[in-house]
Write a structure and sequence with these properties.
The chain is 46% helix and 0% strand. With 70 residues, it is mainly alpha-helical. The chain has a domain at 35-70.
């Protein structure tokens, strides 16, 4: 919410990332769980789908990560 306020000029101060970065609504959780915890099962599944990995729908999170070489 604060980024949107900064972009609209409603905030007293605005960082560079607040004004130049992709809005959270357009990002759609794209950067969620990319820290120490790692990606979610859904994110791994989507990446496996892009790489056309066979059997991905029945794989566990650990199996997806292994198939993706993580």
């Amino acid at each position: 919410m604060n980024k949107e306020r900064a972009r609209a000029g409603e905030s007293k101060t605005a960082s560079r990332t607040s004004t130049k970065d992709t809005s959270s609504s357009k990002r759609g959780g794209q950067r969620s769980h990319s820290g120490a915890q790692g990606p979610t099962k859904e994110q791994l599944y989507q990446e496996a789908k892009k790489k056309n990995i066979h059997g991905r729908s029945s794989m566990t999170m650990r199996e997806l990560a292994s198939a993706l070489g993580r």
